[in-house]
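hey
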């Protein structure tokens, strides 16, 4: 999820699970089982003018603890293995989620995110890295500030809008998300994430504007996600992503 300023154009802007995929701050946390629960997610990336890539990610949850390990590779051009840890603290109406991630090529990053409120809530977050090479699987700036609001008052829904903006590398990167989670019954969930981005891959690049749409369908312990991302990672390229996964 994070990348250094000099390498951003090549490898991306960020740090997959560091603003975990900011998972807990602006999304519903998965069931906090007293036994270990796992989620395995293979993803295939098709990017214009670039070699196709693959990522394998294994995530494990136990009560308030989350750990993950993943490996990304793009032919003979770039490979990276990552590990991370996240902890969730609940204080009445406030949820606090710090996380830490390390990866090969010398990358280290972390974030802290908070959700304030329940049926109507606010989200705030801050992310930092050591600016080393990292292919951004989060697709948002990660040396960044996050802020937004959400509500669970709509029937069977969780609706949120939030912005992630670079506040360190002077790239003017800003991504705004509108996320709708709809749970019609205990077996199914539909998640739609629409976003709009603007900014530069590095301070020396031209600014780009693009949209992205990700749709995820969960049925029981199986899920499918497809995404179309224009100007992915603030580059001039477009990307299609396909993920299939299982929880066990």
């Amino acid at each position: 999820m994070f990348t250094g300023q000099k390498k951003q154009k090549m490898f991306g802007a960020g740090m997959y699970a560091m603003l975990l995929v900011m998972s807990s701050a602006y999304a519903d946390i998965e069931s906090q089982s007293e036994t270990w629960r796992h989620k395995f997610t293979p993803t295939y990336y098709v990017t214009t003018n670039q070699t196709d890539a693959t990522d394998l990610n294994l995530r494990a949850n136990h009560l308030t603890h989350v750990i993950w390990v993943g490996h990304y590779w793009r032919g003979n051009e770039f490979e990276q293995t990552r590990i991370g840890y996240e902890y969730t603290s609940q204080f009445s109406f406030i949820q606090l989620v710090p996380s830490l991630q390390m990866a090969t090529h010398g990358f280290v990053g972390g974030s802290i995110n908070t959700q304030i409120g329940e049926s109507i809530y606010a989200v705030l977050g801050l992310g930092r890295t050591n600016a080393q090479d990292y292919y951004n699987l989060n697709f948002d700036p990660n040396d960044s500030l996050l802020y937004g609001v959400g509500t669970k008052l709509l029937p069977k829904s969780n609706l949120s809008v939030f912005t992630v903006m670079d506040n360190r590398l002077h790239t003017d990167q800003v991504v705004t998300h509108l996320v709708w989670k709809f749970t019609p019954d205990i077996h199914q969930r539909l998640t739609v994430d629409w976003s709009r981005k603007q900014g530069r891959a590095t301070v020396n690049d031209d600014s780009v504007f693009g949209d992205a749409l990700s749709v995820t369908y969960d049925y029981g312990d199986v899920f499918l996600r497809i995404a179309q991302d224009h100007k992915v990672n603030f580059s001039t390229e477009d990307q299609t992503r396909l993920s299939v996964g299982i929880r066990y």
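Confidence is low (pLDDT under 50) at residues 1-29. The chain has two helices and 15 strands.
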